[in-house]
Amino acid sequence: MAEVGHGGSTDVELPKVVSLFSGAGGLDHGYHSVGFPLVLAVDSSRFAIKTHKRNFPSTTSVADDLISMQPEGVLKCLANRLSQGDSIGIIGGPPCQGFSRANTGSKPDDPRNKLPTLYLEIIEALQTKYDVRFVIFENVQGIRDAKHSQVFNAILDKFASLGLSAKVEEHSALDYGVAQTRNRVIISAFASAEESDAFRPAKIRSDRLTVRDRIAGLPEPVYFSRAIDPADIPFHPNHWTMKPVSKRFRDPDGAGSSGRSFRRLDWDKPSPTVAYGHREIHVHPSGTRRLSIYEAMLLQGFPHDFVLEGTLSAQVEQISNAVPPPVALALAEATAAALNYSTAQSMPRQLQG
Known about the structure:
alpha/beta, two-stranded antiparallel ribbon, 11 helices, 32% helix, disordered C terminus
């Protein structure tokens, strides 16, 4: 049994976790680190699931499209992994491109905006067989914009109809020790209002939140070639990047601190959001090349022993979509503390002493 104590005399058995739209497992890493048993992860990217299998070998990691699977498919995957009535938690971040402010053409009727509804439909289906104790829903700030208000309000209404007490908060990665200006919306929903109120991720005070603090002193990366075997890349299998062919890399002032395609990082500031589109990987502070995948991973707060699988472009997508593990850790610790608090409050007073 997974048990943990967080500031109280009662240790609560942690629910088993189902991760939907898991990606490479940034959010999963936090919950796994706290001791939540991670029983299932599902993502449509075969490379992300290959990464997940490598880093979470005891978890059943499934490469499949949740739109095709539908709630019934998720229930089928869990049939031999959970017993009816088991306590579970559900974590995930439905793909957010339809809500992203970086997507200047985003529209309320973007088909991708239906994925949060699917996420909630899966939660509802899981409630028919299991005791859903909590849900974590991660997304971009744009989901709260006025043009998406109908979708966002429907999400909150659905949580209420499922009997889950939901709270909406915006979190900055900088507040959790990540050297990156990444702000995200987190909807935390619990089976009781007391647990919801007790969910309070603890911020970290740090004066080491610059690009220099994270990636200075690393050896030069290997440049991409189709013939390269990641196993042969020195220092770390993800320490590779695109060959700098543009003339702008030969000009010390060729890349600036704004724009998308040639955004150069400042050694003494946090990184902008690690979310790269096609050929938009940030330029290294030296100005001579783009960041390596491993450098981007460090700016996201991934540990050295975490390895991304797949092609270079697949790794770019995985690191861009990931929840920074230090943020995930804070969410997981707050989840465990909230569940522990609720258990302690419900115990007879003589057992709490």
